[in-house]
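Chapter summary example.
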Amino acid sequence: MVITRPPQGVDVPGGRRCPDPCAGLEDEADKIEIHRGPNIHEPPEAEELPDEFKGTVTIVLPDDISTGDLTPDGVEVMAFRSNVAELAKYTLRRFDPEFPEKAQEMAPGIIVGGANYGQGSSREHAALAPLYLGIRAVITKGFARIHRRNLVAQGILPLLFKNEEDYDQFEQGQEWTLPDIRERLNNGDTEVTAQSNGTEITLLAQFSERERNMLIHGGFRRQLREEQEEEKPSAPGTEAPEAPGEYGSDEESGP
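The structure predicted for these 255 residues follows.
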């Protein structure tokens, strides 16, 4: 014989009602205080993409930059996996030990790289650490697939040189502008313009619709929160009146 238990919080035969074990827990949850250790912090978050982006080149890198270059692993940094601010102090130190300080001073910043940028393990910290340092765009000859996806998820623009020879025009400290970048992404344009001191080049912005929306919002977390806010039910009595004929016309559709 199988004995089944009636679902909680619903009416059952005999006029009885099983209590809902979760009733009132939302109020209790608000009172819970979570104690975090000194190396557990909220991850950084990008701002929404501006109408026009102006950034400074923080560093120009060669081919095959790895995620290990961007955020090293090992005993030295293991305790900082949930402390991006500390982890970011090790970003690109193989190329410039002072890069973290310089990047924050130059923010919003641009990283310029060669081919196969972001190769190696798929660690998300390789996007989070540069984001914390103020990096908002990465321009390269080519991206490793997973790292490119992680950049998009954190609201960092991954752009490609249309003409790889334009790589040679970039130097540390230069300011570059991406005019109308928000509108260009909204329109689904696959090519955008970058300008600096009279020089103009074309970059490839090859994104899916989902990626464009994520970049415009400033990353997947900000996008998710805004979508959840939009989906919240209206408070009682605040619903907009139903438009006539919204679910079918009140008029005859034919003779």
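To summarize the output: Confidence is low (pLDDT under 50) at residues 243-255.
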